[in-house]
Design a protein that fits this description.
The protein has helices at 18-32, 35-55, 59-69, 71-89, 151-166; strands at residues 3-4, 9-14, 97-102, 105-109, 114-118, 124-127, 131-135, 141-145. The mean pLDDT is 84. 49% of the residues lie in helices and 23% in strands. The strands form two sheets. The chain has a five-stranded antiparallel beta sheet with strand order 1-2-3-4-5, covered by helices on one side. Strands 6-7-8 form a three-stranded antiparallel beta sheet, covered by helices on one side. A hairpin with a 4-residue loop joins strand 1 and strand 2 (9-14). The two termini are 33 Å apart. It has 167 residues and is an alpha+beta fold.
């Protein structure tokens, strides 16, 4: 979580931390899958099954309906569990990464590799309240916790990114 202040370049050391990694993966799942539609369908079917379960006085059907209605919460818990299990099996998933960001793009450096991407290489860059997600395809990308950046660095990052989009 080390950062240097420079208006022409941003250097950030991202320490291995499972919580932002989980947040990144959940964000990617919600952005690039139809999980929201599945939630709506599961809830509607759950309510219908619950009504039939109550009407038929069948408690097994009623319990099934509750499972369907709570699908959203159980799904999130399941995904988090799978991510933690994957990280435990392959700890190299979470490695210290240095990000060097400037007007040309970004370089990510780990102890095993270095990747340089121009701003045009990113499919999408999404800023939320507490994170910046930089996707270079639908399943892979980088994340930056905003707390690692000062306000001037966030402004610079936005300017570099939007300058490319304007051209």
């Amino acid at each position: 979580m080390n950062k240097e202040v420079n208006l022409n370049e941003i250097r950030i050391i991202i320490e291995p931390n499972i919580e932002p990694y989980i947040k990144f993966n959940l964000f990617a799942i919600y952005k690039y899958t139809s999980i929201k539609l599945l939630y709506i369908i599961a809830t509607i079917i759950g309510v219908i099954v619950l009504i039939f379960g109550i009407f038929l006085e069948n408690y097994v059907i009623s319990v099934l309906s509750i499972v369907l209605i709570t699908f959203r919460y159980s799904y999130n818990a399941l995904i988090k569990k799978v991510i933690k299990k994957n990280v435990k099996k392959s700890p190299s998933i979470l490695t210290q990464t240095e990000l060097i960001i400037n007007q040309n793009g970004m370089t990510a450096i780990t102890d095993k590799s270095a990747t340089t991407l121009t701003w045009e290489d990113f499919d999408s860059i999404i800023e939320t309240k507490d994170m910046i997600y930089l996707f270079y395809n639908r399943a892979q990308g980088f994340y930056i916790e905003k707390q690692l950046l000062n306000s001037q660095q966030i402004i610079s990052l936005r300017a570099w990114r939007y300058k490319v989009r304007a051209n």
